[in-house]
Amino acid sequence: MLIYAIKRAILAALVGLVVSIMSFGLLHMSGDPAAAVAGEGASQEDIAHIREIYGFNRPLIVQYLDWMLKAIQGDLGKSYYFKLPVTQIISKRLPVTLALGISSLIFAIALSIPLGVFAAIRPDSWIDRMALTISVVGQAMPTFWFALILIFIFSVWYPILPPSGSENWTYFVMPTIVLGYYATPAIMRLTRTGMLDILNLDYIRTARAKGLSSSKVLIKHALRNAIVPVVSLSAVQLGFMLGGSVVIETVFALNGMGYLAWESINRSDFPLVQAVILIFSVIYIVLTFVSDIVNAWLDPRIRVK
Q1: Which of 13, 23, 57, 246 could form a disulfide with 258 if both were Cys (CB 3.0 to 4.6 A apart)?
Q2: pLDDT average per 10 residues of sequence, the chain (305 residues)
Q3: CB-based contacts of 211, cutoff 8 Å, min separation 6
Q4: CB 255 within 8 Å of CB 175
Q5: pLDDT, position 100
Q6: What's the chain look like in SS3?
Q7: Domain locations in the chain as residue ranges
Q8: pLDDT value at position 118?
Q9: Is 282:50 a contact under the CB 8 Å cutoff?
Q10: Superfamily of domain 89-267
């Protein structure tokens, strides 16, 4: 198990390095950061002066190495727009996005796994059809449209939930439902398919023939094996929800990382954009690494790969 974990950690570190190189290069190729800092009415002399002050005239590889060394030490630079350290800005916005992403994943898992299990136990029943309907609707419905519908119902029609803000937990109810429902179809379908395959295997019939209770066969023998790919998918979905929360945070006016990414891109705030990409990438890589370790614990056969 330790050797497997070390291999996955090395691979995760290499992926993080490649992502940082690609994101840094693409951002600097998308425009002149000196011109973005100088503003629209700046002269060529002003732009050249800013390029020299910030070191934009240095080779790109030198700029990257300087940025990476500082990032390893916790220095992500200073925002061009806010005039504050990037770490200070992110420390205020990241908890909002993490709270939204984790609560949304919990909602998605709590809804999708029971639906997938019951749909697999009774295929072609009304439960199965209901689960598939929820899945199809969840995939077809745009998240921003669903968010506006919830705001109209629960904030305008029946004003029981606040439409925007992040002051307390009530502000996260509707965003959690919207973002969690986005991840529900994939997790539910994978759970249903995995349970259908597992329940038809010989060892399940053997366990039933030995007189084990239905709940024990279902949870200990079937669900434990069917849940392995669901763990990986849940980690991926959480990464997608964190990175793709910009729409939800914009609709509900949540001052999180997604809304910060939209603001920094509009303002060409390169240090802030780079930091947001790095944070989201690290979170995604860590989630994938953790899911690999959990899967190896659930299924020891994975460790020999």
Answers
A1: 246
A2: 73 83 76 68 73 76 85 82 85 87 88 84 82 81 86 88 81 88 84 78 67 65 70 76 76 82 79 84 81 69 57
A3: none
A4: no
A5: 87
A6: CHHHHHHHHHHHHHHHHHHHHHHHHHHHHCCCHHHHHHCCCCCHHHHHHHHHHHCCCCCHHHHHHHHHHHHHCCCCCECCCCCCEHHHHHHHHHHHHHHHHHHHHHHHHHHHHHHHHHHHHCCCCHHHHHHHHHHHHHHHCCHHHHHHHHHHHHHHHCCCCCCCCCCCHHHHHHHHHHHHHHHHHHHHHHHHHHHHHHHCCHHHHHHHHCCCCHHHHHHHHHHHHHHHHHHHHHHHHHHHHHHCCHHHHHHCCCCCHHHHHHHHHHCCCHHHHHHHHHHHHHHHHHHHHHHHHHHHHHCHHHHHC
A7: 89-267
A8: 83
A9: no
A10: MetI-like (1.10.3720.10)
pLDDT of residue 203: 67
Q: In the numeric block, which tokens belong to residue 304?
A: 């020999």
